[in-house]
Design a protein that fits this description.
The protein is mainly β. The protein is built from no helices and 20 strands. It is globular, with a radius of gyration of 16 Å. The chain starts with a strand and ends in a 5-residue tail after the last strand.
């Protein structure tokens, strides 16, 4: 579901989030050694040792991290820098009219800003919920149709790939919509299901389109 590198990690370990196996893996950068893993292979669960189709990882500068969990589970799980379970929060919500804070349906992506606030893409409930690093609810943005992926840029704007409009959307950290671009279709420059987004050191944008297969 995701291939990621912790931006604070000088060794650039590669993390794989395998939702079908209910696992998160951490490899050396060359892929030759499995350093650590979380979950039990193809055994779903909702406790401190299992996931239910996890979707993404986001890190704090000290190496502690959060897992959005996920398609089956409806929670965010926090681990310390050594990978030890710390806590989890979130309950099952009921779309299409779920408005309660901390209730999720399809916890599909996660990002963190420089103030350590955690942004959770609550995809099936068509919103983004914001928490502090200990799971305290802070805010929610309900002006987003189906947030597939969220990316916190270095200049502290939140970019969202919207699976309903097939646009890339830019927000400031108060939730104000600033800019959007893109449209649906298979042609070059158009999108269909942007499932992951990344930016290189020269600010080139890369998108993985799950339905256009490219």
């Amino acid at each position: 579901h995701r291939v990621q590198i912790n931006p604070y990690d000088p060794e650039k370990h590669v993390w794989l989030v395998d939702d079908g196996a209910h696992m998160v893996y951490k490899f050396t950068n060359d892929g030759k050694k499995l350093v650590q893993s979380w979950g039990e292979f193809k055994v779903p669960g909702n406790d401190d040792k299992h996931f239910g189709r996890p979707t993404e990882v986001a890190w704090l500068p000290d190496g502690s991290f959060f897992v959005s969990d996920g398609y089956t589970n409806t929670r965010v799980v926090k681990f310390d820098k050594d990978g030890k379970y710390v806590m989890a929060w979130g309950q099952k919500g009921t779309p299409p009219n779920e408005t309660r804070p901390g209730y999720f349906n399809t916890v599909h992506a996660i990002a963190i800003d420089k103030n350590r606030r955690v942004y959770v893409a609550d995809r099936a409930n068509s919103r983004i919920q914001i928490f502090d690093e200990n799971g305290k609810f802070l805010d929610m943005w309900t002006n987003i149709r189906r947030p597939y992926h969220v990316l916190m840029s270095r200049d502290q704007f939140l970019w969202v790939s919207d699976g309903e409009t097939h646009k890339m959307l830019k927000y400031d950290l108060t939730g104000k919509f600033l800019y959007g671009w893109g449209t649906f279709g298979p042609m070059a420059g158009r999108f269909n299901g942007v499932h992951q987004v990344s930016v290189d050191q020269e600010n080139n944008l890369y998108v993985a389109e799950v339905f256009n297969g490219r």
